[in-house]
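Chain A, query sequence.
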Amino acid sequence: MRPNQSRAKQSRARKEAVTASDRTMFAQGEPLFSLGPANRHAAPTVSSRGCAHRSLTVAALLARRRKGMAVVGFVIALLVIGSFALWLFQLSAVTARSTMSHLYSTGAFYGAESGIEMSLRELNQNNDIDSDGTIGTISDNDNTADDPDVVTGAFFVEKSSTSPPLYKATGRPAQTGSPWTTYRRIIEVRVE
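Chain A, predicted structure.
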């Protein structure tokens, strides 16, 4: 084939050369390969002469390309699904932490609310219920070990101002693990 021939002529010349060699082999009674209707896409077999037929049909080439694209598509789908699963795990962990924060913060608030209720009871009855020496304050001695507690948290009440009387209840959650040990809820009440 000459370089100045058109591609169509080169392709036609190649086909004729392959067809001529096939005729020679078939004339001798020895087929190069078997691609029957049932196995059109099978790999070519080698004849007893050691020659393998090198030209693949268009269908076989397309089948190979489709197999390669299927692998690429599968890998991409696997990456997308894996990323989505990791995102869901992270989202559920953040949601769980947020829920726990809300729960313990609410527990601290209920503790502070219980402290104010107990303080108001002392003031209404004019009686020191918790025996800390001052009416209206609850466990105001800077010792967290003896603070009264409810199911959701513990509390103490201190008098922050005398005129007008201002009482401040500080509640903390019952949980002792980090980071919830630092949670505090404060309620202030002015008594007149």
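Helices lie at 7-27, 58-125. The longest helix spans residues 58-125.
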